[in-house]
Specification:
single chain, 296 residues, alpha/beta, Arc Repressor Mutant, subunit A, D-Maltodextrin-Binding Protein, domain 2, 9 helices, 42% helix, globular, LysR_HTH_N, transcription, WH_DNA-bd_sf
Length: 296
């Protein structure tokens, strides 16, 4: 019978792939670089073939590494679940989390992946809808937690801020057209409000060529060169670039993000996810008073 694969070696192997280097993996698994390098060498000796190829300074899995990665993730997940079910049986359950679509991929999903490593028995149901809809779901108890964009008049604590910018296809120069073609979220969305208010403030002639509740729909219109779109800077995809006042576009305000819990969501798991997200997502927040907020 062949010897079973060592889970400690597999954990370092996955860490190297996720981090892209031995240095990054060493920080993730709490070992020295030399120790991680030796683990990778032992694993390659055990499976009888190389598992990586170098891409500059980055380590990437070769075909054998890609195949092993699928099994390694599954084995590690099963091991974590087995230990958690014995050591922390009270941590099994479901938490329903709401988030606007444009925050999900670049901001929230990597954090949820780290949460799952620490709490493998907790299931997270992700609901992607605009902030206004998520606030209604919180009130009715349909969801337990929500990461939402805070309107200026709302008294929610600010967790972090994100830059809201104009974006467009660089080879189409839609921002030079008159009237300016814009693609916006549907009525009621704060991004639509901020974009229209910014254009009106500088008397920029514009026409709405697309209204959509889907970020992907707005991105497709902008990538085709048919319009400029207002979006969170960190979520700008390939094919679009951020515009500035130098391009003739009015500046846009920052987005304030808040993490809120449903009034009826008092469970242990909800609290754990709330605390984890707060610690992972908290960022610097500027505190100038908005012109539409009353003085204290």
């Amino acid at each position: 019978m062949p010897e079973p694969l060592d889970l400690a070696l597999l954990r370092s192997f996955v860490a190297v792939i996720d981090g892209g280097s031995v240095l990054a993996a060493a920080a993730r698994v709490g070992r020295s670089q030399s120790a991680v390098s030796m683990q990778i060498q032992r694993l390659e000796d055990e499976v009888g073939r190389p598992l990586f190829r170098r891409d500059g300074r980055t380590l990437r899995p070769n075909p054998a590494g890609e195949e092993l990665l699928l099994h390694a993730r599954r084995l590690l997940r099963l091991s974590d679940e087995a230990l958690a079910s014995l050591r922390r049986p009270q941590e099994a359950g479901l938490v329903r989390l709401g988030v606007p679509e444009d925050y999900a991929a670049y901001l929230l999903l990597p954090v949820l992946a780290r949460f799952a490593q620490h709490h493998p028995l907790v299931e997270i149901e992700l609901i992607c809808e605009p902030s206004a809809a998520l606030l209604r779901h919180l009130e009715t108890g349909r969801i337990d937690l929500a990461l939402v964009t805070r309107y200026p008049h709302q008294p929610f604590a600010i967790l972090r801020q994100e830059r809201f910018v104009w974006a467009a296809a660089p080879d189409q120069a839609a921002w030079l057209r008159d009237p300016l073609p814009v693609a916006l979220f549907e009525a009621g969305d704060i991004a639509r409000r901020y974009a229209l208010e910014a254009l009106q403030a500088v008397d920029r002639r514009h026409r709405v060529v697309c209204s959509s509740k889907s970020l992907h729909g707005l991105i497709a219109v902008a990538q085709a060169g048919l319009a400029v779109v207002g979006m969170v800077e960190a979520s700008i995809p390939p094919g679009l670039v951020a515009l500035s006042e130098a391009d003739g576009m009015p500046s846009l305000p920052m987005f304030d993000l808040s993490l809120l819990a449903s009034p009826g969501a008092e469970g242990h798991l909800t609290g754990q996810l709330h605390d984890f997200l707060t610690a992972e997502l908290r960022g610097p927040v500027s505190t100038p008073m908005r012109s539409d907020e009353p003085a204290a």
